[in-house]
Design brief:
Elements lengths: L2 H25 L1 H4 L6 E9 L10 E6 L5 E5 L5 E8 L4 E7 L2 E2 L3 E3 L7 E7 L3
Parallel strand pairs: 1-8
Antiparallel strand pairs: 1-4, 2-3, 2-5, 5-6, 5-7
Pfam family, one: CarboxypepD_reg
Organism: Terriglobus roseus (strain DSM 18391 / NRRL B-41598 / KBS 63)
GO molecular function, one term: carbohydrate binding
């Protein structure tokens, strides 16, 4: 291989690399910044004052930034789960059933856990 041909091959390889690296960074910004996933989840249960699992309670999750809400209706086991929550947002969680409301729990953006578990207790 001649020196001229070697330099041309090297220049081509550098040009291709220069074009592909920025495109790769645009396609995968989280990996490019070295960041982990920016989502978390919250699971838990709703219980009565006496400790029994509450079926049919509506669990509310409120984004305190956008004020949007999601809801989940508990099954026989009283369990609920919300996924893909932003780690940079505070949330409020509470349950209601037949006009009664549990205490409101806050999920802080300063808490760095990716999976959180909370219990909501109905007043009666």
């Amino acid at each position: 291989m001649t020196m001229k041909r070697l330099l041309r091959t090297l220049r081509t390889a550098l040009t291709v690399t220069a074009l592909l690296v920025p495109a790769t960074l645009l396609l995968h910004p989280a990996h490019a910044a070295g960041q982990a996933a920016t989502f978390r989840s919250v699971t838990g249960d709703v219980t009565s004052k006496g400790g029994a699992k509450v079926k049919g309670a509506v669990v509310h999750l409120k984004d305190t930034k956008s004020l949007s809400q999601r809801s989940y209706i508990t099954a026989d086991d009283g369990q609920f789960k919300f996924g893909q929550l932003s780690t940079g947002t505070d949330y409020e969680v509470w349950a209601d059933l037949n006009g009664e409301k549990s205490a409101v729990k806050t999920l802080s953006s300063f808490d760095n856990k990716n999976a959180m578990e909370i219990s909501l207790k109905m007043p009666n």
